[in-house]
Amino acid sequence: MQCCLAEKSYNPFYSLLSEKLLTDVNFKYTFKYALWDYIKSIGNLEVRQILNLSKIYGALMVKSLPIHFLKVIDF
Fold it and tell me: What does the DSSP 8-state code read for residue 1?
């Protein structure tokens, strides 16, 4: 996750790698809590980091992660 946010532009390699890791249930919880931590500190992130974060989690939501991982967001 940290490497994905450090990139200048989104690299789909990180979502492919994450999909492989998410076959293990423990990694799903790790990704959930990492997402929640990033959402809580979204004011400290740069625009490109927010963009990369949204793209990787968007790609993972399509295939691997359930939508209820976004329950901490106040829409």
Answer: -
